[in-house]
Amino acid sequence: MRRVIGLIGGMGPEATILMMSRLLAATPARDDADHIPLLVDSNTRVPSRIAHLIEGGGEDPTPVLVAMAQKLVAGGAGVLAMPCNTAHSYYPAIAGAVSVPVLNMVELTAGAVNGQHPAGPVGILASPAVEITGIFARAFADLGREVIYPADRGRILSAIRAIKGGQADRALPILNEAAAELADGGARVAVIGCSEFSIVAPRLTDPPLALIDSLDVLVAACVASATWQ
After folding, report:
1. Which Pfam families did the record assign (predicted)?
2. How far apart are CA 116 and CA 122, in angstroms?
């Protein structure tokens, strides 16, 4: 049977549901039993990553994320995935606390981008926390690549908050402008590096550069990891 995938979710809840939907669509199946069994902890009470990483005064989410991972493993998950790029700032603690593989969304995405677009700077459309912690910068630096970000962190953060608040239409012009800015800065490819942005990315109008969605990369890795046992 297939290995159980455990999802460390709830960051945010709509993005977790989107991950599950894309995983369902990506799995070759003719019947229920052909699909990947999932254990999902959609914990909306994970302390704010924005408050902790950007504002600097919020509660550290690490203990909650570690506890979620351990609970999923205790429930039978053989592989863990976390459909939140920003939360990968806490990846070492999570991966070090469990005995099963934890798929690294950031490193997998960097590898996918490098394989498909091997030259030039890479644009990052993600939470400012991702820029602050440097998780994508490090992943791409290991591949000899530079990353660039939109200049206005506040506008990017406002787009994330709009999507979380059910006002995705307000985020679209911000993301379209940010994509154009990255292209003007020399990027030919950009990472959709926030799972909230994954919700609206298909609605971006004629982006001036290629887009690789980190959520799709994680979905593909889950399908590959859920091998028959």
Report:
1. Asp_Glu_race
2. 12
pLDDT category at 1 given cuts 50, 70, 90 is low
Note whether 28 and 46 are same-domain residues.
Answer: yes
Nearest-CA neighbor of 174 among 145, 194, 144, 146? 194
**Judgement on whether residues 50 and 111 belong to the same structural domain of the protein:** no
Q: How many CB atoms lie within 10 A of CB 204?
A: 16
End-to-end CA distance of the chain: 5
* pLDDT score of 221 more than 80: yes
Interatomic CA distance for residues 138 and 107, integer angstroms: 9
pLDDT at res. 2: 80
Domain that holds residue 93: 5-104+217-225
pLDDT in tens, 33-67: 999 999 999 999 999 998 999 888 889 999 999 99
Residues 190 and 206 in one domain: yes
Has residue 229 got a pLDDT over 60?
no
Q: Round to whole Å and give the CA distance between 106 and 214.
A: 7
Strands (DSSP E) found in the chain: 5-9, 38-42, 79-81, 122-125, 147-148, 189-192, 210-213
Q: What is the pLDDT of residue 119?
A: 95
Residues 95, 34 share a domain:
yes
Q: Residue 150: how many CA atoms within 13 Å on its side-chain side?
A: 24
Q: Are the C-beta atoms of 219 and 19 separated by less than 8 Å?
A: yes
Q: Which CATH number belongs to the domain containing residue 177 in this structure?
A: 3.40.50.1860
